[in-house]
Structures are given as C-alpha cells and as structure tokens.
Batch of 2 targets.
Target 1
Amino acid sequence: MENREKTVIIKHLVKRFGDFTAVNDISFDVHKGEIFGFLGANGAGKTTAIRILCGLSKPTSGEGTVAGYNIRNQQEAIKKHIGYMSQKFSLYPDLKVWENIELFGGIYGLSDKQIAEKTTKMLKALSMEDARDMFVRDMPLGWKQKLAFSISMVHDPQIVFLDEPTGGVDPVTRRNFWKMIYQAASNGVTVFVTTHYMDEAEYCDRVSIMVDGVVEALGSPSQLKERYSANTMDEVFTKIAGRSIREE
Amino acid sequence: MKEIFAFISKEFMHIFRDRRTTLIVLVMPVVQIVLFGFAISTEVHNAVVDVLGDMSDPMVQQIVCSIENNEYLEIGKILDNPDQMNERIRKGKAMAALCFENGFDRKLNSEGKASVSIVSDGADPNSAQIVSSYIKGVISSEQLNITTQMTGGGAATMRPNVQLMYNPAMNSSYNFVPGVMGLILMLICSMMTSVSIVREKELGTMELVLVSPVKPFWIILSKLTPYLVLSVINFISVLLLAVFVMDVPINGSITLLSLVALIFVGSSLGLGLLVSVISSTQQTAMLLCGMGLTMPTMMLSGLIFPCESMPVALQIFSDIIPAKWFIIIVKKVMIQGAGLSSIIKELSILTGMMVFLLWFSIKKFKTRLS
C-alpha cells in the first residue's frame, strides 16, 4: 500500500455492559483505501465494535478516531463521513429507485443539484438507467444490493462499513459485488467489511479475527495462512475461532 | 432542515402508496362514524309486538290501536293461544307480546281493575327492557285517559314530564360521536405510528437512518408529524360528519375542542412511540395496540359502558386511559357547550398524561438507540 494515511485508529478499546466485557482491549489501524475484513464468530464482539466505530455507541474506555474524528466526542462528525450498509441491503421497498437516492442524499445534507448529479452518475455506473422509476421491492436481490452499496456512498464518505454485505446472495452476484468493493477501494474509500464467507476473507487486504472480545489475529490473508500453517482462510478461522470459550 | 423535510415527505409516501394504510387512515374513520350512526344504534325502532286477547273487546282495541300509532312499536299478529306467542318470540318474529285477560273491558268497568301482561324476549335484555318500557308508557297513558273519562276529568293525576337536557330527542349519536372520535384518533396515532416505526426496524432501514447524521429527536419528530397531520384531517372530517350527517351540534367553542383534541393526539402519539420501543415485529405492535390500547379504550372509556356502573377496580383502571378524559371533555364541550372553567380538571389530567407519555416514550426511544 503506497498510501499509508490512516482512516481508522483504535487504541485499547473496551466496551462493557455491566459485568460483561463485549470488547476487551482491542487496537488496530485501517489505512485509506484498504479493504479491511472484520471477522469473528457470532457473539465475538464484532457488532459492538462496529457500533462504536459508527458513532452509535460510546466506548467504556480506550481512544480512537474514525475518518479523523474522535469516537468519544465527535460522533456526529463521524456519522457525516462514514457510509453504512447492513446485511439486509435495507432500502425503502415502497419508494422508487430515484426516490431512495434522493432521500438518502437529503438525509446526508446534499443539495438538490448534487442529488440530481449523483442520481444520474450512480444509475449510469450501475447500468440501471432504465430502473430509475422502478420500485425497490420489485428489484432482484443482486440489484438491490448494488444499489444499497452505492447509496451508502452517496455522500462520498471516507470509509464505508459493510455488515455481511453478501448474505443470501448467489456466488456470481457475490463476485460482482466484490468488483464494486474493489472499485470503491481503488477510488480511495476505506472498506470495512464483516463476513461469514471465508472465500471473501481472501479478497481482503487485511483481516482481523475477533474471538471473545479480543482481536486474536490480524494480518493479510497470506500472512495468516502462513502463521497458522493453513491452506485456506477457512482453516485459519476454524483454528482461531475454535478457541472461543464464550457461548454464542 | 432539508433532511427533516425529506423524511416527512417519505413518511407520507409510505402511507399513500400502501392502499391498506390509506384505507385505514382516511376511510376507516368515516366508515366507523357512519356505522355507529346508522347501524349500531341503541334505540329500538319498529319493534314487533304480538297481541294475545279478544280483539272484539273495545278496551283491547283501543290499546292495540295506540300501540300501532306509536312510532317505535308495531303490531305483529293477533294470537289466540300462548303457544303461538312463545313460538313467535322464540323464532324472533316478535319482540314482545301483550296478553289481555278475558273480558278485559268488562272487568275494568265493573271491578275497576283488569290485568294485562307484557312478555318480552329476555334473551336480549337491553332491547327487551326498552320495548317493555315503551309498551308500559302506552298503557299508562291509556290508563290516564280512562281514569279521566270515568271520574269525569276531576281526578288528581300526576303526569311526570321527563326532559333530557342537551339531548331532548335521546339521540344516541350524542354519546358515540365523542367516543368514536376518541377511538379513531387513538387508533390512527398509536397504531399507525408504532407500526410504521417497527416496520423500519424489521426492514433494517431504521439502522441506516440511525447511522446517518440526523439526530434521534428529529427522527422521532418526522415519524410523528404525518400522523399528527392525518389526525387533524380525521378530526375535521368526524366533526363535519357529526354536524351535517348525524345532527350532533357543536355547542361549545371549536377552538377549545381542537386544543383538547391536539392534547389527546399528543398523548396517543406518545403511546404509539412507547409501543414501538417495546415491540420488535409489526404483529407485536399491532397486537399491543389492539388488545392493550383499543380494547380497554372501547370497554372502559365510557364509550359503550358507563364508567359509573363499573366495579371500583375497573373505575380506577379506567382513570389511566387518556381516551376516557378526552371523551368526557368532548361531551362537555360539544354537547353541553361547556367552557374552559368547567373542564379544567379533566383537561389538566389529560395534559399531564400527554406530557408524561411523550417525555417517557422519547426518553425510552433514545436510550433504546444508544
């Protein structure tokens, strides 16, 4: 990576809910334009950590910045500079494609002119010019997913969080979607992605694997495979996540 | 400000693009008012009364004739044995029967008393009571005529003159218009609001909105505003229907009435928000609103059963239902023409409820987010 500018810096992040420590002292950096895979079994603390990074929740202790803003006291600024796409590719099904774009453009404070430009550009890039007036509920899942991804970047965020972005999608659509992710990363957008598909973990620049609230492994897929003498990321994950003592 | 506007207009699209929602929001109120107004009436019209007795008897003829002339009653069949009478009541062909003893006229004139019995269908106690009291009324006014005839007009009689203040015609719509108005406003505000919020939770769009820079308070506000607007429309349409179709007057100040409605709408929105915090699926929200809010409102707010005749425990419970206070105030303002000074107690209670419900639900909603 030629550009070493850091978009996410996390130092000794801890989040406790009562007696339960969901996130236990994690630290990592994510560089600009990097595709960062955030892996872990269910209940490992991934969601809690992402909520903190998105400015939805405050850490119990620890420091960090996202897109240059402090996760403790600049949550509003963080929200303006990040994009988010959930595993449901949530858009409003009863709104048309352009209305969804307009709505989220509006929510992120874009002007009418900017929204109009964005809409044209986005639909062109997605080859969905003809689907402009289509209701989102009538779209095939693959289209919906791509649209949701584009809409999550309607305000040109520095970093985009993808929470299991390919759940329930066929392998071809998944591959196409990863092309979009690469595209975004090559434009300098940092992609922070969680997934349960280990073949996707191979596509990431770097991967972190969380077990019981702790980042157990962090490195590029090839480094990790070497370190754990495994052939695939799947094996790496099974070896590491197998150490979990926490109930799911 | 632009983001709020985008949000609110989106909310209206949800409502008007879903035919079912539109129907519930705009057509249901009209249907309810008309239904309650015309179909569900507690008054009894054209109740069929059979007669068991000797129609050649002049006194019997006279009474039957005046029953026939009564606008609420109608003579069915003239029967000659009690079996027929039972049969017809059982089959629902007659609501009541009037049995005269033999030689009714003769006995009345010679012995000064004769007996007549009213038999009515107790399977439907409400109507039975109403019909028998109509018949009793007819008989007692006949009785008065006879007494006057026999004693030459000099008898001392007492004729009670019953006058119903505010509602001389005993129009049942005077009771249900305020009630149905309360029910409609509550339903629209609490059910529709909670369902629309919970739907976003289910769709996952709520997550997207929350990670956006829009502040939670504005999200809540933009969720509530459309239903507030719709309530205003419904309030106006119910009032128009009440005045022009149901002939229910607005005797008090419309401004005061609107203010009260607004306060009630606020408390209902609070309830809706609260339901949305508790429930995670639309079904739960719907069930909670239906069983938890609508049922108690129907049963305990005085809309159907008067609060005064409830057991003490239920009366106390009914006190925490905002609709009860709303209905009381609307009756006072709309029907009695009361001013602010005579509703101050109820209004303060309702306002207190609104402030508490809104404050509590917004607080809950916000903590739920973080």
Target 2
Amino acid sequence: MSQRRGNRSTNTEPDISELEEAIKECVHYIICREGSKIPIKRSEIIKHLNTTHETPTSQVNKVIIEANKILKRVYGYKLVQVDSKSGMQYILVLTEESESLPSSVTDAHHRKILVAALMHIFMSGAPVKEEEMWKFLEEAGLLEENDHAGRKLLTTTFTRQMYLQFTKEGEGDLARNIFQWGQRANEEVPKNFLLGKMAEAFGKTPDHWCEQFKEANEEREN
Amino acid sequence: MSRNNTLSQSSRTSMTGSYGRQLRLRNMLEEISTVEDDASNNLECMDQTSRVVKEAKNLRKEGNDDERVRHPGESYLDSRVLRAASDVTVRCAEAVSGNINIYDKHELARHIATNPDFWHFPFPLEIPVAAHVFGSFAPVAQRPTRVRRQVERQQAAQLKEPEKVDKLEKSEEGSQMVNRVNRFIVKTYKQRQQPLSYFHTVLDPDSFSKSVENIYHVSFLVRDGLISVTLDDEYGLPFITPLSATPEQVDLSDEKQFIVSIDMQRWQDLISAFDIRKPMMVLKNK
C-alpha cells in the first residue's frame, strides 16, 4: 500500500487491467497452494508473481486484494491473515458454512485423528497435555501406543497446517507440552458444529454440556 | 487410593532428619507431577493436590529453622512442591468454572473407537481441497524431495580400548625381578663367602635407570627380610648379606631402616669413587 504518488486514484482503472493476468495467476496460485493447508507466505506470492508476470513488489498488495475479491465472488473463499513470526501468511477458508463432501485427497484416518484431537481439546475446556492426548487417541483406537510417526502428524503436520498449536508450558522439570486449537481450527470449525456432533453421537441435546454450549454460543455471537 | 496409603505410611516410618524429609518431598514432587494423569477428574485432582500440600506443610513442621539453614536443599524441594502444586491448581482452575464439566473423555474415546466413521467429516468452513482444478492442473511444483545421497560410510574402525592391564601379572613380573636379584645375591655370596658391597652390587655404570631399578629391587628384599644391609665396621660402607633365617626368626626390634637417595650427580660420583667399570649384577631379561 505504499503508494507515494498522488495520482493513484486516477491510475486505478488502467492499473487493474494491466494487472489482470497477474491477478488470475494469483488466484490459481492461492487455490493450488491451499491444497497442502500449510499457510501461504506473502513472500511466496510475491516471488511467484515476480517470476511469472514480472509483477513489481509494490503492486502485489493490490493484486492480492483483487484476487481475494475473485476468490470470494467466484468460489466463496476468503483469505485470512494468520499470525506468524516470519512475515505475513494467509490461509483460505469458506466465507460461509456449507456441507462439502469429504475430500478425496484427505487421508481418512488422519482426518479422524484431527477431529478427535480437536474435539478432545474443545470438550476438555482447557489445553491438553501431550501425554494425555496420546492416551486419549490410543483409547479411541486411532493411534497405537508409542506410535512416534503417528504422533508427528499432530506435533508437526497439523501444527504446520495451524489446526493445532503445540507449545511448551512451564520451565525446567515442570515443563510440559500442550495442545491447543490452532488458528485454522478456529476459522474452519465452529464450536457449535462440534457440539452438535457430540449431541448426535450420544443422543443428547447440545446444552447437555453446558460449559461447552456456552462457549459455542459466545463464539457464534462474536 | 493405594497410592495414598503408601505415601502416608512412608511418612509415618521413622525417617527422620533432613535426608528423610528430602526423600519424602521428592516423592511428593513425583506424585504431584503425575496427579493430573492419574486422577480421573478435576475434583479428584484437586483433592490429591491439597493432600500433598498439607503433607508438605506437616513435613516442614518436623524440621527446625536451624536444620533448614544447614540443608538448603530441603527448602528448595519444598518450594518446588509448592510450585508444582500451584501449577496443577492453575490448570484445574482453567478447566473449571461455575459449572461442572461433565465431559467424559473415556466415553468419547470409546465412541470414537466403536464408530470411527462417524468422526470423519469435513469442517463447515473448510474449503474442499482442490486436487484437480481444470482436469490435470499441475499444482504448483512441490519442492522435489531431495533424494539423499547414500553416503558410503567407512566401517567404523574397531574400537580401540586400552589393553586390560593385568595387575596380577605385572606384580608377578616385578616380584620375578626381585627373585632374580635375590638369587644373584645368594649365589654371589656363596661364591665369594663374603658380604657384597652394596654399591658395587646395585650401581650400573652404563645406566642410571638400571641402577635405580636395582636399588628398588634390593629394597624389597630388605623389607622381606631376605637380605640385610649392614655397615661395615672397617670402611663404614654398606654391605649386603643374605639371611638364611626364615622371616619369623628375625628380631623385629633390631630392625633399622635407611633411606637411599640417588641422583645423576651422586650416581656418577659413586661410580668414579668405587671405580666401577661394568655392572656386577647382570640379570638376564626374559
């Protein structure tokens, strides 16, 4: 947005048409990159546009804004900026809730583990300790005992995808690793949806778990 | 509950003093760090924590300030227990509010285990992953996984370990030398029928270190009572006489000790003084 010239408003129209190809490319790039679910770095978009369409870095912001408009209008997606230590990053989510078909590329077993982990954290109402998470997943028949490769799925993959947050808490001997919801989970998974699943599974109404019910409602109101 | 009993039992046993208390504090620390995993719900977790804190408090009453000053480790452990307890409390408090959380993780886990497919669904705001947009739309090149070159590693050389020093053998070697020296002295004494001049016997004009070794070996023989070194009345010089007597018969009260000191200078002086040209004691080395 670092427009220094005062003639910006008069230039807007021709700029857009000039950038049209770059915008399309940007949309493609974002959709494809989203497949991995690993947040897209702004620097990666800049690099990609620089090489494919020689888009100057100063124009990239404009391109991303326009691309976001297309994503929204055509696909019903929106870019969400996520927290990160290394520059600006984006994830892509739907603008409104919808029932999509299970993706053919997502590993079903991985998805079950993710659902179970998110559900467990949400229902616990507090961060879940690493060891407790392993025990829970083992009990749920999703992860074998001491399946370290399987654990990596949570500590690395889901964490990178920002479904989970895996952090250290405390110091010294008392330090322990805890799981929390990541930013993507907060964006993609409404809590009342999860609670609905719980209710369906156990034949109750969502307000059976009043604490979680309250939290889910608070989220919806915001 | 069984855990509960063992702990209170151990505190009743007569483990007194700072060490005993430190041991028990360590046990408490251990217990408190596992309490969250073991307790089935928040309430039980809190109960156990408060019991441990109470126990730590009682333990503190047992010792006095003087002892605590001498054993700072005790106070340190005490504070650690308190710290751990407060951490547990914070986590419990986070999970509790006015209402009771009736979520039963075991129930959920069982449900997942029995109906895994129920728990497989896309998220409402999750975009369906676009595997193929417009047919075979090549996704942006994923970084090719670099194939790791197999590094031919040299087989690690056999670990070198220091030769096992067989002390026994070494000492035998030493005593063998001493024996040989003894045999030499006895033999020479028998041949000459007179005491051997100490310096002639031990000094080797060609080697200082050999001389030192000889002195060393002879000293063992003296200690074992196999030979005696006496000062000659006529010259005031030391002479060696083998003792045929068995060690028991040696009168210990009569024993005198002497110290031999030698250095390069003295060695050379002695050799020239006694005009020693070649070593008298030639021991064959095996």
